[in-house]
Amino acid sequence: METTRILLDQNEIPTHWYNVVADLENPPAPPLGPDGQPVPPAKLAEIFPDNILEQEMSAQRWIAIPEEVRQIYALWRPAPLCRAVRLEKMLGTPAKIFYKNEGVSPAGSHKPNSAVPQAYYNHAAGIRRMTTETGAGQWGSSLAFAGQMFGIAVRIYMVKVSYQQKPFRRSLMQTWGAEVFASPTDMTEAGRKALALDPDNPGSLGLAISEAVEAAASRADTTYGLGSVLNHVLLHQTIIGLEAKKQFDKIGLYPDVILGPCGGGSSFGGIAFPFLADKAAGDRRAQHLRCVAVEPTSCPTLTKGHYAYDFGDASGYTPLMKMYTLGHDFMPPGIHAGGLRYHGDSALVSQLYHEKQIEAVAVPQLATFEAGVQFARAEGIVPAPESCHAIRAAIDEALKCKATGEPKVILFNLTGHGHFDMAAYDRYFAGQLEDYAYPAEAIAASLAHLPKVG
Ligand SMILES: *Cc1c(COP(=O)(O)O)cnc(C)c1O
């Protein structure tokens, strides 16, 4: 029988996360305040505990994973590394296609990999309440689950349209004990202001972030948790690539190319950075490795954005981060159903892209869903629409191998299953989706509003 699932024992869950900051060519650019000066730690301490801030600013290469976190990880980790042999046959490619299945977590995606340590560190710092925002509900459900594991009360501001359109993600969060409110609410200054202007405001991620941050800053016992973008989130997600390396060791292979969907960049960094560690350490196998971040043509942050300081949210509430950005008032089109809608990107992913250590590609929507359906029909798993971006790019790589005859080893990140996203598949089957490349003029217009720094 052919080996198609490479599994590790529970005690092989990695003991340390990998911090890519230790191997960067240049020091990372610090977050700046509205005055253009580095943000004082006391400002961030209003919404994050010290142990999280320490990780956020750390340049230490290996950071120990607390035993309590490994024990919760063990509910679903180590996640399987699978070989997609039926997809390979369907494509007629000599390439070997592997995927790391992060859809096996309780919340159905990679996001609990960071939600669990965030809840743990907050609890260790004496925090008993956390707030966050959620759009489609992936992050909210992950933090709800993690909060339940460590006895932290979680309050979630869910974008009002999603709250109305995705009732089952809301029930998932409530099942894990979280309070969920449709944002804008009348419970915060930011929410009341928005409702005064328009009582029917449908909400936005930027507004929900403002509400969650305000709610955390206004109480000493409450902090805020973010599901992507920040350095400590990418650090926690390296569990994905670290496990994958052990799994490849078991079968004596090493990837030639690694592909991951890229929204804020946490799952991409999570799978790719541990392999970049090999490259930095001079490992011969990694010298020609390519790591490719895959984004939608309707939100082409890395491939069409600028590398500049910008706000992390739409309302200009967060510190300025140096990153690839489409401008903080960039609005992805309503026709886009596949997620990955963030205007910016993680500072670490951005810097590595700028220094040409990683690559990026943008894929159109219809070909992305087509790839997800093809994968489901070959391998059985229905992928999250975000994951379909990596599948599209992996299939394209495999087809290039078919043309050249190269038996490359391809690894992609299956970041989640799509069981809560069947409405997007429905729209695809009903022919209601179309391709949309964000127009260059519109990008130029929103980039014109970048804050002036220096
Ligand atoms: C949130 C999410 C992503 C994108 O976020 P990153 O921080 O870029 O990883 C990708 N896939 C799934 C399933 C998600 O839930």
UniProtKB/TrEMBL annotation:
Catalytic activity reported: (1S,2R)-1-C-(indol-3-yl)glycerol 3-phosphate + L-serine = D-glyceraldehyde 3-phosphate + L-tryptophan + H2O
Keywords tagged on the record: Amino-acid biosynthesis, Aromatic amino acid biosynthesis, Lyase, Pyridoxal phosphate, Tryptophan biosynthesis
Pathway membership: Amino-acid biosynthesis; L-tryptophan biosynthesis; L-tryptophan from chorismate: step 5/5
Function: The beta subunit is responsible for the synthesis of L-tryptophan from indole and L-serine.
Gene Ontology terms: cellular component: cytoplasm
Cofactor: pyridoxal 5'-phosphate
Similarity-based family: Belongs to the TrpB family.
GO molecular function: L-serine hydro-lyase (adding indole, L-tryptophan-forming) activity; pyridoxal phosphate binding; tryptophan synthase activity
Protein name: tryptophan synthase
Subunit field text: Tetramer of two alpha and two beta chains.
Documented EC number(s): 4.2.1.20
Presence of keyword Isomerase: no
SUPFAM superfamilies: Tryptophan synthase beta subunit-like PLP-dependent enzymes
Keyword Iron: no
Domain Tryptophan synthase beta chain-like PALP intervals: 76-416
NCBIfam families the UniProt entry points to: PRK12391.1, trpB_rel
